[in-house]
């Protein structure tokens, strides 16, 4: 590459050098910068280095300087701080809806946002059991297609899969394509879901994005505009309990006081709690009653009791009775 052209790239190479090699603990001297520029075939004087650093500061880069040892210049502020990158990396590593290969690629990209020195500190300590990640390589394409459809106000179609005992994904409905008006994407219980209006039933449903394949944008416009506009996503997420269907019912439940944190984690800090006695409190809220809900309640043991309605109380008792029958010798 001609030397004159390299000279034009000088300030860009300087920016790259500061981003990749420096942080508060690892500044670089003017001599370091000059040697790096020479490696790119660029001749530079000390005064020019100072001028270029001031230009980058004017551009908006937060470049600090140190007088002590080690002395020099360093990138003082980045788009993401080290703890923020660590959080994002752990989230990527623990996400079940992307493949191991995709996770590794995303982690490498996040490492590039830090200096080479800080990147060494970012090695994730998240441990995942083997096989916890999805095998569906279409997840990125699915998300992009869904967003394209929402932006264009179009319906989508796809095939939906489920696991078999042979550990293979098998299409539901014999491979028949689902037709849905997409509403929103949401992350719940470490999985990624599409909330949309099922065109065949007119009911809002949810679908695991990693179990969707062959997603396509259709010509027909989305239905249910008013549904999406007024939809309470927070309530929908809380009531479905991990994306399991059930009939919505107003329940009154009595909890032991030590479970208040569990209840607020599940229903949110705005949940209305009422004192029952010195050791118990009541919660009354809308809940989609299902086996998944009963399973969650069972995990709380005797510290949780359905008070009303009596019909659901009896359904829960029957649920527990069936479980006990399984263990009768």
Summarize the entry for a quick read:
By secondary structure, the chain is of the alpha+beta class. It has helices at residues 3-8, 10-21, 30-39, 46-59, 82-94, 100-111, 116-119, 139-152, 225-230, 233-240, 260-267, 291-298, 310-326, and strands at residues 63-66, 72-75, 154-163, 169-171, 178-188, 191-198, 203-208, 212-221, 247-256, 273-275, 280-289, 304-308. The protein has 13 helices and twelve strands.
Mean pLDDT: 85
Q: How much is the radius of gyration in Å?
A: 28 Å
Strand content: 25-35%
**Number of discrete helical segments:** 13
Order of helices and strands: HHHHEEHHHHEEEEEEHHEHEEHEH
Helix content: 40-55%
Give me the secondary-structure category.
alpha+beta
Unreliable spans are none
| Total DSSP E strands | 12
Question: Explain this structure to me?
Answer:
- The chain is α+β, with helices and mostly antiparallel strands and 329 residues long.
- The chain has 13 helices and twelve strands.
- Strands 3, 4, 5, 6, 7 and 8 form a six-stranded antiparallel sheet that branches.
- The radius of gyration is 28 Å and the shape is elongated.
């Amino acid at each position: 590459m001609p030397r004159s052209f390299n000279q034009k790239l000088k300030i860009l190479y300087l920016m790259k050098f500061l981003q990749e090699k420096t942080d508060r603990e690892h500044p670089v001297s003017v001599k370091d910068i000059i040697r790096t520029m020479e490696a790119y075939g660029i001749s530079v004087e000390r005064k020019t280095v100072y001028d270029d650093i001031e230009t980058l500061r004017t551009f908006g880069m937060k470049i600090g300087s140190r007088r002590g040892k080690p002395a020099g210049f360093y990138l003082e502020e980045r788009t993401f701080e080290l703890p923020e990158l660590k959080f994002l990396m752990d989230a990527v590593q623990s996400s079940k809806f992307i493949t191991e290969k995709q996770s590794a690629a995303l982690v490498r990209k996040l490492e590039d946002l830090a200096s080479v020195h800080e990147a060494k500190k970012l090695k994730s300590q998240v441990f995942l059991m083997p096989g916890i990640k999805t095998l569906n390589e279409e997840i990125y394409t699915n998300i992009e297609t869904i967003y394209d459809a929402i932006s264009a106000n179009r319906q989508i179609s796809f095939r939906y899969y489920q696991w078999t005992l042979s550990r293979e994904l098998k299409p539901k409905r014999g491979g028949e394509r689902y037709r849905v008006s997409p509403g929103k994407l949401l992350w719940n219980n470490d999985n990624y879901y599409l909330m949309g209006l099922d065109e065949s039933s007119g009911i809002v449903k949810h679908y695991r994005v990693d179990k969707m394949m062959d997603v396509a944008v259709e010509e027909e416009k989305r239905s249910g505009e008013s549904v999406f506009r007024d939809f309470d996503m927070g309530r929908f997420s809380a009531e479905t309990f991990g994306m399991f269907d059930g009939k919505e019912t107003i329940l009154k439940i009595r909890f032991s006081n030590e479970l208040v944190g569990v209840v607020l984690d599940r229903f949110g800090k705005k949940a209305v709690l009422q004192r029952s006695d010195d050791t118990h409190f009541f919660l009354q809220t809308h809940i989609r009653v299902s086996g998944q809900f009963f399973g969650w309640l069972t995990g709380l043991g005797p510290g949780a009791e359905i008070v009303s309605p009596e019909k659901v109380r009896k359904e829960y008792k029957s649920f527990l009775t069936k479980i006990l029958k399984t263990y009768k010798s």
